[in-house]
Amino acid sequence: MTSSRSQPPEHNLLKSMTEKKKLLLTPTRQQIPEEVTWNLSAMFPTLADWDKDFGELAGQVEDMNRYCGRLGESAAVLSEACQTFLATSQKLEKLFVYAHLKSDEDLTNSDSLGLLQRISSLATRFSTASSYFSPELIAIEPSRFEQLLADPALASYARMLREIARFKPHTLSKEEEAILAGSGEILASFRQIYSQLNNADFQFGEIELDGEKLALTHSTFVTFLKKTDAKLREEAFNSYYKVYDEHKNSLAALYTSSVKKDVFLARTKGYPSALEASLFVDDIELAVHANLIKTVSANLEPLHRYYELRKRILGLEKQSLYDTYVPLVADVHTSIPYESAVEILCQAAHPLGEEYTREMRQGLTADRWVDRQENIGKRSGAYSSGCYGTHPYILLNYKKDDLNDLFTLAHEAGHSMHSLYSRRHQTYQDHDYVIFVAEVASTLNEELLLDHLRRIYSDDKRMLLYLLNHQLDDIKAIFFRQTMFAEFEMIIHELAEAHEPLTIDRYRSIYRGLLEKYFGPAVEIPPLGDLECLRIPHFYSAFYVYKYATGLSAAVSLSEDILAGNLVQRDKYLDFLKSGRSKYPLTLLADAGVDLRKPLAVERTIELFANLLTQLEENL
């Protein structure tokens, strides 16, 4: 890893003509070297193997029908039904994960999209065939249900069966559940349509720089916004959002349909609201969501102070939304090749033990968990995926000259190690940890990385300031911004539930009000700024985003103890990683040392932000 206090002139977006040419022409998938792609052959050696397994499973998905009406007959029958259900689910999951990874390699590849459609259709068939399972299980008389669970044959399925029984107030008749299951593909289509539009169809044009045309993509958008050339930032912002402006009515209609789907399902299942339906799945108390928004809303002064500091340091007469991504320490340059990034991450994770770091290094390099280079049609963003019986898979578009990508790799590696440990230590039915706890592992990895980088650069005041600012930006993005997103989708769903009209003008008005609330008086919202509400893909998975904020709050508390050398706390955390979904998420976190049912963790995160801001103010 190298760094330099010097930086190329403002108009030089790239360091050399070679790099300019690389950005000029994004390669096709076929031009990407195999060693920088993920190893899907570890899942299925060839497409023929996928087809073979698909064909076999297609003839088995109806097998669940033979248990219909018999679940309460005996523990042996119920155990056999559970085995069949889980074995089929596991095969379906593996086929689906492979198909979605192949599709995300190139969203314009119709063959890969065809795989995804085939397995989605098969999954719907299985969902329909097994739709009786929950309502029939729930209909078993309570004393008989307990008698069945007392049988050793059902010991390994007890948590799963009790979890199904918890949904009794929200489970419909067999016939009604079958209808809902059969509509699964249709109800999931809003997110898929949005993904196709946003990742495959939308073209954002090019930005001219030094006489050359540079591609504006999801991946390069924020990179442009970080540049010190104000006109470049404004041009990139307006060019990017012009596409959303041109499609705003269609996108608004699409999102409205997704929101109404959420409301429809919640009402159909007997929940008071779509929010409570979402929280019930993970047994999350409504107070957790409410406390987050209430506590953050009451403590926005440090965030407003941060934007005022940015305006002063950058010398801006007016600070617009597109100016808020520029690093305050602009003369720090890093160039970290992927291999060096992996080594840095492993050194940073040393407090978690030798086994953790050894396995992470192996996965990120030799085992090829990561698909790390951008190509035409590749899905934007980053994620960790995979399934039971396989190693994790990470998608990202790594750029060695963007320090944020090092943190993104740390983030996704945290998810992947969580998955690796959970799959290894839990049965299939208990391994898949819920999203509420997922962001803890990923964010804690980033906290460890920050601490390690501070030690690497202990004699470089400029870099230390840069890292200080980075941590502030991290909390701003993961904690404050996600809370703002959570407040937006809460308001929108409440309007839908009150039968209020949802139009593009209303979306923009509400979102603009939230932007003004969270960014404060030091930031002006440009005319197209409120269109951001149309480009957040997480809104198509309602009430997801708040979990980033609660996850960071938990990670901050846990990482402080681990970095202090508390081995008991470290072991509790590693046990947490191995726990999958064996307990409800709030209980898992409480066992690890954080109680999110109380506002303390949220308040500590705000306090950390305020303290970091004071340090930055004093040093800048």
What does this entry look like structurally?
This protein has 620 residues and is mostly helical. It has a domain at 34-187: Up-down Bundle (Butyryl-CoA Dehydrogenase, subunit A, domain 3), CATH 1.20.140.70. Helix content is 61%, strand content 4%. The protein contains 27 helices and 7 strands. The chain has helices at 17-24, 47-58, 75-105, 110-129, 133-139, 142-149, 158-166, 174-182, 184-187, 189-201, 218-225, 230-246, 248-268, 274-281, 286-297, 301-313, 338-348, 354-364, 403-425, 428-431, 435-456, 461-497, 504-519, 546-563, 567-577, 585-592, 600-619, and strands at residues 2-4, 206-209, 212-215, 333-335, 370-371, 383-385, 393-395. It has a 3-stranded mixed β-sheet with strand order 5-7-6, with helices on both faces. Mean pLDDT is 91; it is low at 1-23.
How are the SSEs placed, and which strands pair?
Blueprint: E1 2-4, H1 17-24, H2 47-58, H3 75-105, H4 110-129, H5 133-139, H6 142-149, H7 158-166, H8 174-182, H9 184-187, H10 189-201, E2 206-209, E3 212-215, H11 218-225, H12 230-246, H13 248-268, H14 274-281, H15 286-297, H16 301-313, E4 333-335, H17 338-348, H18 354-364, E5 370-371, E6 383-385, E7 393-395, H19 403-425, H20 428-431, H21 435-456, H22 461-497, H23 504-519, H24 546-563, H25 567-577, H26 585-592, H27 600-619
Parallel strand pairs: 5-7
Antiparallel strand pairs: 1-4, 2-3, 6-7
